[in-house]
Amino acid sequence: MATSFGPSALATPANGVTVARLLAAPFLIVMIDGSEGSWAAFILWFVLCVTDGIDGFLARRHGTTRSGAFLDPLADKVLVLGAMFALVKWDVFWWLPVALIAVREIAISMYRSAAGRQGITIPARQGAKVKTLCQQFAVGFAILPWTADDRWLFNGFLWIAVFLTLLTGAQYLFDARRVARSQLA
């Protein structure tokens, strides 16, 4: 039987995986060098993307925590935005789609945090998971040596990610407004 953790627990298996992902982010960012891709960067990226699913599995199995609800999205954003900004630095990604994604991610994170302080929980929609996957594919294809020269492929995923990022951002705002109304009624 799996050990269950309460909502205020900090030292959980899921949080351990999430913190490891955060600690690996600077190494990944340094490995992205704008060349014809990098097997080392791609392998680390792939592992970090897979461990995103593992920490979610562990959280569901052992119990979700408030710290995990904060740390997991933070790790996702640090990894995705860090990798995207590194790719902008090397002129692999155009700054505009990355800026749109970054503004939305930061704004919604701040909004969710403020709503959380008021006791309003805004659950992630399935579209947000697809959005994250598209962001991960865009970065992955840009750093994978086999596809690093296929700008149509990774830019296609990047612009799909922009669309989904903006769409899910609007959905979060709508959902939060609906949840707030129902909690106040």
Specify the helix fraction band: over 70%
Number of helices: 6
Largest sheet: none
Q: Assign an overall shape.
A: globular
What's the CATH topology name?
Four Helix Bundle (Hemerythrin (Met), subunit A)
Query: Alpha-carbon distance between the termini?
Result: 40 Å
Q: Helix/strand-derived class?
A: mainly alpha
Tell me, what is the CATH class?
Mainly Alpha
The CATH homologous superfamily is named CDP-alcohol phosphotransferase transmembrane (TM) domain
Structurally, the number of domains stands at 1
β-strand percent reads under 5%
| Rg (CA only) | 17 Å
On the 0-100 scale, what is the average pLDDT? Answer: 86
Question: What is the CATH architecture term?
Answer: Up-down Bundle
Run of helices and strands: HHHHHH
* Number of E strands: 0
Oligomer: single chain
* Low-confidence spans: none
Describe the model.
The chain has 185 residues and is mainly α. The protein has a single domain, classed as Up-down Bundle (Four Helix Bundle (Hemerythrin (Met), subunit A)), CATH 1.20.120. The chain is 77% helix and 0% strand. The protein is built from six helices and no strands. The protein has helices at residues 13-31, 39-62, 66-89, 95-117, 126-143, 151-184. Helix 1 (13-31) packs parallel to helix 3. The longest helix has 34 residues, at 151-184. The protein starts with 12 loop residues before the first helix and ends with a helix.
